[in-house]
Amino acid sequence: GKAVPVVIIAGGAGKRIGGRKPLQLLAGATLLDHAIAKAECYSQIVAVASGAEKFSLPQGIRPLPDQIDFQGPIAGLEAALNFGTEMDADHVMIMPCDTAFLPGDLLSLLYRGIGNARSAVPKYSDRLHPACSLWRTDVIELLPEYLATGRRSLIGFAELAQHVTVEIPTSSVDPFFNINTVDELALAEKLFVDLRLHK
Fold first, then answer.
1. Listed ranges 48-62, 70-84, 114-128; the one with the highest mean pLDDT
2. How confident is residue 2, by pLDDT bands cut at 50, 70 and 90?
3. Would you call 107 helix, strand, or coil by DSSP?
4. Which of 15, 46, 185, 199 has the fewest CB atoms within 10 Å, i.e. is most exposed?
5. 17: part of which helix (H) or strand (E)?
6. Cα 182–184–187 angle (5° rounding)?
């Protein structure tokens, strides 16, 4: 099939972590660097939305400005769907910049699971993770109507798009562990080092 672009949503002020969350360091690299490395495992087409203009990005990584006048992951999704459409892709994947442990095969699991649905959302031990999801680019036609209702939640939009759920196999570290606080960053550092030692 066609390449699936991956868009990292680097929004979120990261107030609980001391600000500028994507630039916080984990095992010697920024969270944004980790996210880009993971995205590049998934796809040759990688972009960064939501505040991309604030960061210097490696060559070949496209910064996507948010088009709509509010913050949050749905603004990043909107930018991602526009980017996917521009790239003539049938699907686009989004992921946050603060999940350093996502499975290496996440995109292929979601892609296998999506079938003819317009959205595939991973589920890990009974929790849905709409911030790491796959979308058919034509779902953008549903977005204006959804936003007009005043709703902003990603899962609400995924429900409107009649998403499928893709079960992710259990692993030793929660692959969707996301880093919001200084303590979580310290824990992630420890997990990261442990995983590296046991590879």
1. 114-128
2. confident
3. helix
4. 199
5. none
6. 115
CA–CA dist 50, 165 (Å, integer): 26
CB 125 within 8 A of CB 145: no
Tokens of 51: 């505040």
Report the C-alpha dihedral over residues 168, 127, 36, 105, rounded to 10 degrees. Answer: 0
Select from 51, 50, 36 the least CA-distant residue to 6: 36
Which helix H or strand E contains 191, and what residues bound it? helix 182-198
Q: What is the mean pLDDT of the chain?
A: 92
Q: How far apart are CA 98 and CA 171, in angstroms?
A: 18
Beta bridge partners of 96: 9
Nearest to 114 by CA among 182, 41, 165: 165
Spatial distance between the Cα atoms of 161 and 141, rounded to a whole number of angstroms: 10
pLDDT single digits (tens) 76-85: 999 999 999 9
- Distance CA(4)–CA(135), nearest Å, equals 10
> Which position has the token pair 């979601």?
110
Looking at residue 13, its pLDDT comes to 67
List the structure tokens of 185: 């960053």
Measure the CA–CA gap between 165 and 44, rounded to whole angstroms: 25
CA dihedral angle for residue 25, residue 28, residue 63, residue 95, rounded to 10 degrees: -70
